[in-house]
Amino acid sequence: GQQVMQIPQYQHVQEGEDFTTYCNSSTTLSNIQWYKQRPGGHPVFLIQLVKSGEVKKQKRLTFQFGEAKKNSSLHITATQTTDVGTYFCAGPRTGKLIFGQGTTLQVKP
Amino acid sequence: DAGVTQSPTHLIKTRGQQVTLRCSPKSGHDTVSWYQQALGQGPQFIFQYYEEEERQRGNFPDRFSGHQFPNYSSELNVNALLLGDSALYLCASSLVPAGGTYNEQFFGPGTRLTVL
After folding, report:
1. Which residue on chain B is closest to A88 by alpha carbon?
2. Which of A42, A50, A99 has the most B C-beta neighbours within 10 Å, making it the best mutation to test the interface with B?
3. Rounded distance, CA B97 to CA B112, Å?
4. Measured between CB atoms, which of B43, B55, B109 is closest to A99?
5. Is B82 inside any structural domain?
6. Is the pLDDT of residue B102 over 90?
7. Domain containing B23: what range?
8. CB pair distance less than 8 Å for B107 and A44
9. What CATH number is given for A4-91+99-104 in this structure?
10. CA distance A49 to A25
11. How far apart are alpha carbons B23 and B72 in whole angstroms?
12. Which of A89, B46, B74, B114 could anchor a disulfide with B32, C-beta 3.0 to 4.6 Å?
């Protein structure tokens, strides 16, 4: 069954509003990755977090890895129409990379 | 520098048929993983190849098999196709050896398989 859960499944925001997606694992992860998939496209790597409590920023995107290394979040400040897509978290589990079901972000201009 | 390439782009098959999908990894990468992505879902890990051997396998039946060639390219074969096999099949390459810590996966554009 699904071992990496993401919420919410969908999010509609007005351009300029903030957006957050949350990722939760049933087990401790050695690291967590985030990917973005544009409509009709393929997943593109955004970042990897390895350390407990790690926080990384990429321009308007802020990624966090929980202290227990079982949860993570992606926060986008002041969304733009170019942020549209589905955001996936993924973590290694018994040698396999397990993806969450993703959060699809729609941005109204 | 060519990224990950996959062929064909689209494929239509009927139930019971067999299909072969192909993937060429990013230059310099030696590890290839295959994923199945159903509509509205996250990619599901099928298996991973490194040094021409299957190193890890997800929860997929034996109808799904693969191969990696000496030049690191890979094939995914699916036998006795079912309607439920309709999905986007993604190939991803990386430098990380199978079983090691996963690093950045470079995905190809995928093959859209439709089973009628």
Report:
1. B42
2. A42
3. 27
4. B43
5. yes
6. no
7. 5-110
8. yes
9. 2.60.40.10
10. 14
11. 9
12. B74
- Tens digits of per-residue pLDDT, B31-41? 999 999 999 99
CATH number at residue B15: 2.60.40.10
Environment class of A85 (CB within 10 Å of its CB; exposed 0-12, middle 13-18, buried 19+): buried
The residues pairing with A92 across neighbouring beta strands, listed in sequence order, are A97
DSSP of B18-35, one letter per residue?
Answer: -EEEEEEPPTT--EEEEE
Domain count, chain B: 1
Cα separations (Å) of A99 from A24, B15, B80, B82? 11, 28, 26, 23
- Backbone φ and ψ for A93, nearest 5 degrees, come out as -145, 120
Cα A47 to its chain centre, rounded Å, is: 9
Identity of residue B98: A
Q: What is the pLDDT of residues A61-100, one digit of tens each?
A: 999 999 999 999 999 999 999 999 999 999 988 888 999 9
Please state, in angstroms and rounded to a whole number, the distance separating the CA atoms of residues B74 and B77: 10
Single-letter amino acid, residue B63? R
Average pLDDT for A9-20: 98
Cα dihedral B11→B15→B17→B21 (10° resolution): 30
The answer to whether the CB of B6 falls within 8 A of the CB of B20 is no
Residue spans of the domains in chain A: they are: 4-91+99-104
Q: How far is A31 from chain B (nearest CA, A)?
A: 8
